[in-house]
Write a structure and sequence with these properties.
By secondary structure, this protein is an alpha/beta fold. The chain has helices at about 15-25, 35-40, 55-60, 65-75, 85-90, 190-200; strands spanning about 5-10, 30-35, 45, 80-85, 95, 100, 110-115, 125-135, 140-150, 150-155, 160-165, 170-175, 180.
């Protein structure tokens, strides 16, 4: 029986593109859902996201019981979890977009506005850029598609799974235990993104 992937629908994600990419990467049973019961039954969880941090977190919390279900299956049962773009940023303690807002608090850190040292590096960071892994099994060197104005500032270097450069080093991925989050969009990153998603679907943390 194929594993069940819960793709979280909280009104803040590029859902259909992510669903299509997961299917192309080998997922057979994908449930696009905001149901806590569906989350509890899933083998793997994917949290996409585009837009503002505070609005995304509020939308996630507005789904009755969803955050509690995510906390349970990810933190306590250790099921593989993938956060994409804002879905990755929500794993942090807090975000500083339009004020300070609490996040899920799964990986220590704060999401802060990009401040490139090189004035030629524009914000938002948009387009293809190198992904430089730090040793995590899911991340390989290559180019991926980025679109963001804020980035995950992680105080523990061991939580940074990959970096990129945009007028200075920027966190491209974070990971801890059964959790991984990527700032880039695998669903827009062609062969590199599909290969990454395929590895996630096979991952046994």
């Amino acid at each position: 029986m194929p594993e069940r992937v819960a793709l979280i629908d909280y009104g803040a994600g590029n859902l259909r593109s992510v669903e299509n990419a997961l299917r192309a990467a080998g997922a057979e049973d994908i449930r696009v859902t905001a149901s806590p019961d569906e989350v509890r039954m899933a083998d793997r969880i994917v949290l996409p996201g585009v837009g503002a941090y505070a609005a995304s977190m509020a939308a996630l919390q507005a789904e009755d019981g969803l955050v509690a279900a995510l906390d349970h299956v990810v933190l306590h049962e250790g099921r593989p979890f993938l956060g994409i773009c804002v879905g990755m940023q929500l794993m942090a303690d807090a975000g500083e977009e339009f004020g300070r807002h609490e996040g899920l608090g799964w990986i220590p850190g704060t999401v802060r506005r990009l401040a490139p040292a090189d004035p030629r590096a524009r914000v938002p960071h948009m387009g293809w850029n190198d992904v430089v892994p730090t040793g995590h099994p899911l991340l390989e060197p290559g180019e991926a598609y980025f679109l963001h104005s804020f980035a995950f500032d992680a105080p523990n270097g061991s939580d940074v799974a990959a970096t990129t450069d945009h007028g200075g080093p920027v966190t491209a991925a974070v990971a801890r235990g059964n959790m991984v989050g990527v700032q880039f969009h695998p669903e827009k990153s062609q062969a590199y993104g599909l290969a990454f998603l395929s590895r996630f679907l096979e991952w046994r943390p």
